[in-house]
Design brief:
Elements: H1 7-11, H2 14-22, E1 25-30, H3 37-48, E2 53-59, E3 64-69, H4 74-86, E4 91-93, H5 95-98, H6 104-131, H7 136-157, H8 159-170, H9 177-196, H10 204-225, H11 231-237, E5 242-247, E6 250-255, E7 264-267, E8 276-281, E9 284-287, H12 289-292, E10 298-300, E11 305-306, E12 311-312, E13 317-323, H13 329-344, H14 350-377, H15 380-393, H16 397-417, E14 419-421, H17 425-430, E15 435-439, H18 440-444, E16 445-453, H19 457-467, H20 473-479, E17 491-496, E18 500-505, E19 508-513, H21 515-518, E20 527-533, E21 539-547, H22 551-560, E22 564-568, H23 573-583, E23 587-589, H24 594-603, E24 608-611, H25 618-623, E25 626-630, H26 635-640, E26 643-645, H27 652-686, H28 692-711
Parallel strand pairs: 15-22, 15-24, 22-23, 24-25, 25-26
Antiparallel strand pairs: 1-3, 1-4, 2-3, 5-6, 5-7, 7-13, 8-11, 8-13, 9-10, 9-12, 14-26, 16-21, 17-18, 18-19, 19-20, 20-21
Helix pairs in contact: 3-4, 6-7, 6-10, 7-9, 7-10, 8-9, 9-10, 9-15, 10-16, 10-28, 11-13, 14-15, 14-16, 15-27, 15-28, 16-27, 16-28, 19-20, 27-28
């Protein structure tokens, strides 16, 4: 006899399953520079060599790393050090914050949609016999079975509409869910009354069909509106959850919440600064991209101010805590983002505008029909039937699907082209833009430095040989310039934090580093490093950020549309102007901080498209009328954006605008279809020629027409 085998157990060895089960702790990190399967393999294999690490898994789409480990929390330091040595930027995430709000709404809608569809199919099968001529006891029996299926199904699956309708009525308002709820309730109640009186017609199938189509529209709408968490939550998760505090000459790892102003914390190499403070011991370099967006490190020494979230690239430093919690610069940026996100949600979509007019009109029509037929015939049962038919036939299924169906079709088309839509309403907003504001570093440029001026021959080879001993971005760029395979030998290499490298070659001292350290005057407005052989005159390396290949074409296309182009950067004004001249951008602003980016975006009016990739861009991205970020952007920037460019191709921005124009046209066409259907169907229902069943069939036909029209947007895909 052969035992059944679980495929998952075959794929995962039993010893590894046992190890994972015994893991005592877990760690979540953001690894924004991961971009391929090779990166995943390098990280996972590298971390598994560490003592205590049980398992390591990289999620490429989220750019997240999950590590399970045993032993004390010092393993965290080893993991961060290993990632730095492997060449990957990484920072801790607070998994409690990231996982505190799971999306139960989408799951609930999907469950209700499935139940409503299953029940509707069964009730329709029972109705076939009635339509075929069953009468008497058989007809009544089938009707009661239909009631037993339909009534509990409607009571459960239509709850989203009932709750929203009741919330609106409690504050004396009308929304689209009020006529929806009335139509479902009246169809169910009228059917139950007819069955109890032995009537010929019951409309349980109409109530279930209504519920099914409306749930489909609501689910599609939710998927396009709530695909990802708030950028403010992502920023909050970036707050370092633990810090190394110095007490009585000992270093202790403590939770960030236990720190007080005046405490002394140690920030080791490769770690993020956990608080705002002032350096009281040590010299190093910080990655300040959080605040400036620029990848070039900034030198810090005793007395300099540092900010939460910035990355220590050099030697360990000791920091005196001056701000904690909500007082830090990172918390201020998160607050700006939250405020900006709340402002953007006030945008009124086409569907919302239609609902404001449609809901009261439907109620008036149904009420007028009931009053007229009640006085004209005196038959309350007949008058209620006509009012119910009017509510069903005018039930906004087609209106509810008009926008979500287009959004879903457009999302699919853009995804296949290389764009992910995070906010469906952004397609409507994109049509209105008149200005495009670009962040510079990482958006228009690659963020990697290339040498634009360098010495030649022996000086170049010596500098390249020395540069191989450093992970500094400028050193890496210099090291690539070696013109010989056998570079000159260097010895006694010493790295001076925040200054440069020093070594010997052939007994002669050589130095590569900052102008002030070398002893020469820096060239204003350029990224630079200097090199000196012995007592010879120092020579300079000048650098520039590489422009993305698609950049010029993308900007020229946007300018051809008549859009104003603006470039913002945390870099110097002179460096920003040089790039603007190359790209033919008339307006460029350098030296911009996060709060300044936000105010600049707001100063250009209500129809701005912001394109950025960094933490310093998140507030501006959240506040802009529409926002986009590249796939390699930091988590919080992607969360703040309405569109994410999965492919690193800026020409997709123009494609998005083209599709947004087409999508809005399809939406307006769908509203026209719904309106035309009502113009024909409503008079028929008002004069009593449409039963609730025929009204449900007509409503379903209009919904199908709207869905088919939405699919036209997929034609002509690139």
């Amino acid at each position: 006899m052969t035992s059944a085998v679980c495929p998952a157990c075959v794929a995962v060895p039993h010893d590894r399953i046992d190890k994972i089960a015994k893991a005592e702790h877990s760690l979540d990190l953001s690894v924004p520079t991961v971009h391929c399967a090779g990166c995943i393999g390098k990280i996972e294999r590298g971390l598994k060599t560490l003592d205590g690490v049980v398992d390591a898994r990289v999620n490429l789409s989220l750019k997240r790393l999950h590590v399970q480990f045993s032993g004390n929390e010092s393993v965290e330091d080893a993991v961060l050090d290993k990632l730095t040595n492997l060449g990957f930027e990484a920072h801790l995430l607070d998994d409690k914050i990231l996982n505190q709000k799971p999306d139960e709404v989408s799951r609930g809608l999907l469950i209700r949609l499935g139940i409503a569809g299953f029940a509707a199919m069964n009730v329709m099968l029972l109705s076939v016999s009635v339509w075929a001529g069953a009468d008497g006891v058989t007809r009544d029996f089938l009707h009661w079975i239909s009631a037993a299926i339909a009534l509990p199904t409607v009571a459960y699956t239509a709850q989203p509409f009932f709750k929203n309708a009741w919330s609106a009525l409690r504050v004396h308002h009308l929304n689209m869910d009020v006529p929806i709820s009335l139509a479902i309730l009246m169809a169910s109640a009228l059917s139950l009354y007819e069955v109890s009186q032995g009537g010929e017609h019951a409309y349980f199938d109409a109530a279930l069909s209504l519920t099914f189509f409306l749930l489909a529209g609501r689910y599609l709408d939710h998927q396009t509106r709530a695909k990802a968490r708030s950028a403010a939550v992502e920023l909050t998760a970036l707050e370092v959850p633990r810090a190394q505090i110095m007490r009585d000459g000992q270093v202790q790892t403590v939770a960030i919440e236990t720190l007080n102003i005046g405490d002394r914390v140690l920030v080791r190499r490769g770690a993020r600064v956990p608080v705002d403070g002032i350096v009281i011991k040590g010299e190093s370099e910080l990655d300040m991209s959080l605040l400036t967006g620029e990848t070039m490190p900034s030198a810090i020494t005793q007395g300099d101010r540092v900010y939460s979230g910035t990355l220590n690239l050099g030697a360990p430093v000791e920091v005196n805590v001056t701000q904690i919690g909500q007082g830090t610069k990172l918390a201020e940026i998160a607050a700006l983002v939250a405020t900006a996100e709340a402002t953007k949600t006030k945008y009124t979509t086409l569907a919302d505008k239609a609902a404001q007019i449609y809901a009261p009109l439907v109620h008036l029509l149904a009420f007028a029909a009931f009053i007229f037929w009640q006085f004209y015939t005196g038959d309350t049962r007949f008058a209620i039937g006509i009012a119910t038919a009017v509510l069903i036939i005018t039930c906004p299924c087609a209106l509810g699907l008009a926008v979500p169906a287009v959004m879903t079709a457009a999302s699919g088309r853009l995804f296949r082209s290389g764009v992910l839509i995070r906010d469906g309403a952004a397609l409507e907003r994109l049509v209105d833009i008149d200005t495009v504001i670009f962040d510079k570093t990482g958006t228009l440029t690659t963020g990697e430095m290339t040498v634009m001026q360098a010495p030649k021959d022996n000086a170049l080879n010596l500098a390249a040989a020395l540069a191989t001993y450093s992970d500094h971005p400028l050193s890496k760029a210099v090291a690539k310039l070696a013109t010989v395979h056998d570079m000159p030998a260097v010895s006694d290499v010493v790295e001076h934090p925040a200054k440069g490298l020093e070594a010997k070659s052939g007994g002669i001292r050589i130095r590569l580093g900052r102008a002030e350290w070398i002893g020469c005057e820096p060239i204003e407005g350029y990224v630079q490093t200097w090199f000196q052989i012995g007592d010879q005159k120092p020579v300079v390396f000048l650098f520039e950020d590489s422009i993305k290949p698609s950049c010029k074409i993308a900007i020229s296309r946007l300018q051809a549309r008549g859009l104003k182009i603006v470039m913002l950067s945390g870099d110097t004004q002179s460096a920003t102007d040089r790039l603007a001249q190359k790209l033919d951008i008339a307006r460029a602003i350098g030296g911009v901080l996060p709060e300044e980016k936000l105010s600049i975006v707001q100063s250009y009016g209500k129809h701005v498209l912001m394109v950025g990739d960094g933490l310093n861009d998140t507030a501006a991205l959240a506040a802009a009328h529409v926002s986009m970020s590249p796939a390699l952007a930091i988590d919080a920037a992607r969360a703040a954006s309405d569109f994410v460019l999965i492919k690193d191709d800026l020409t997709l921005i123009d494609d998005c605008i083209t599709l947004s124009i087409s999508a809005k046209r399809r939406m307006l066409e769908n509203f026209s279809i719904a309106a035309g259907y009502n113009l024909i169907a409503v008079p028929i229902a008002l004069v009593g020629l449409a039963t609730p069943l025929l009204a449900a069939l007509a409503m379903s036909a209009s919904s199908i027409c709207v869905s088919l029209n939405a699919l036209r947007i997929t034609r002509g895909q690139r």
